[in-house]
Fold:
Amino acid sequence: MKSLRELLAEEPAVKQLLPSTIENITRVYESSDTPEWGRKSIEELLAGGEWTELNDRFYKKLAFGTGGIRGRTIGRKVTKAELGTPQELGRPEFAAIGSNVFNAMNVRRAAQGTGQYLLKYFKGQHIKGVVSHDTRHFSRFFAELVAKTWSDMGIEVYLFPEDRSTPQLSFSVRWLKAHVGVMITASHNPSHDNGYKAYFADGGQLVEPHATGVIAEVNALDEHPLPPYTGTPGPIHILDAKADKAYADAVSSLVIEPKNIEAAKGKLKIVYTPVHGTGRRIIPSLLKDWGFDFSVVAKQDQADGRFPTVKSPNPENAEALQLGVDQAKAEGADIVLATDPDADRMGVVARNAKGEYEIITGNMIGSIMAAYRTEQFFAKGLLNDSNKKHATLIKTFVTTDLQKNIADHFGIKCVNTLTGFKYIGEKLLEYEKTSGLANYDDQPVEVRRKAQLTQGTFFVFGGEESYGYSGGDYVRDKDANAAVLMFSEVAAYAKANGQTIIDYLDGVYRRFGYFTEKLGTLTFEGAAGAAQIQKLLKSYRENSPKQMNGSAVTQVDDFGLQDFKDIDGKEIPKETMLLFHLANGSRMVVRGSGTEPKIKFYFLTQAEVKGDLAAVKAERKEYLNKWWDEVQSDVKERVK
Structure:
């Protein structure tokens, strides 16, 4: 029988496989850490001539990015060795073998590198970490692997007894006064993916300098694996109901005016779906505690990593919301609320005055809550002319400027950040520090708000167009559990005033201007796809379009090369993102996705509302669709 090296030296392999693929296959196959089933899996793929699968799995090492790692955990081709004894819900026995897939090898490497950085940064301190996971395939296995890896390094670990949401993990890092947290999730990605999302002591995702520090430690393990730990293992604690109650109480603190909820009792009807994810752990009890009339989509109320009722568990997609819409029609419900598997994103469908159900975009959802919450804070006197300069909305550059108009109208700040909620979390840490309060988390909400409105900055609301929102700084990531409660309060307010949520949104447009957006994405998978994305980004940087959709490009902001500061004077980190300004006031942003094999195009435009709002909406929709068609044609030329 030919050896692996002999097989890799033969013409089919040499011709079809990248040099880096051959190098990584050899390294993994010959590693003493690779189990026998892993070697058999490689042999199967080679024997079957699965060259594309081998390239995708081995062309590089799965990189630890600024926030963690994410990738396929189940291959496109599942080998017999990986299938092994099929597990519950038809899951393969083993995660895919490969240097560029999300498997035990890469999870352990990530956990060890994270632990090493903490032991150096907090030298001499007793390190504590928190681990949670969503409902995906292998999530519990990976979470327990992270916990054991840290324990074997002497780190004390707190592990949830079963799946919990990403925002609860973020909250729990702060609540437990831990140094680190890890969430095993691939958010709204397809069922074959999983990921490792790292959080620092402030409860926010890794940002600089910690992100670079952790990456360096993870990469160093390739050359210098950690020696066996000889100290006392850290204890592993299983969290109990106290952790859930503490988080639920924090979420409930976001209700601004309970009277608005009370006024809609018996009038507002909600349908909620967790889409087989972690939202089912807390959202139904939150809605019940606040007296909302709601029902849950039963077919999507079970943890199931296959996500069998949807093509993709993404609440941005109409298809993922369809069962909820069907139930809403049957029950005459006013809104459908859906959360993704780790409950950090929320999607909405609302019934309009004609009885039809409309999907509301992430920009619309965020603007509805931003307008309501800002106005209610002023109505209650918590914000006023004397302190409003200390209040802010936070959004990303690719999120609608309607929210900036809302902030300008009320005289509060609006901060723009790079894409990614970690940058919003970073701003919240800044504002925590300027509050002047010691033991910040131990202070009542009212005390924190008073300090921020006196000498710091009070966070009114924040969000990003990709369906992520936050209304409080007790958590440092987007929070769909909280978004469901906050949005339900707005819907109650609208209902009590004889409006649908669509009516409420139209009122926002008439008051602050009509803003509308479109997201265009192009997917380029695998090794070849990654190269195409980089080629496109380079092309847009070096050969920028001179006009778009009949309007001249007047300015190009290159966030990878130019220096920018936010409204607080803080320098914005470098990122490969290009912002094109058009003469007519419209804008387009181009960037590569940080979590998926996609390049994204964000189109933003606006118009005055002088008469028929419906006509304005139709005209701007046609404008955006035409623009996207033009860009897609241009992309085909750029990738030739």
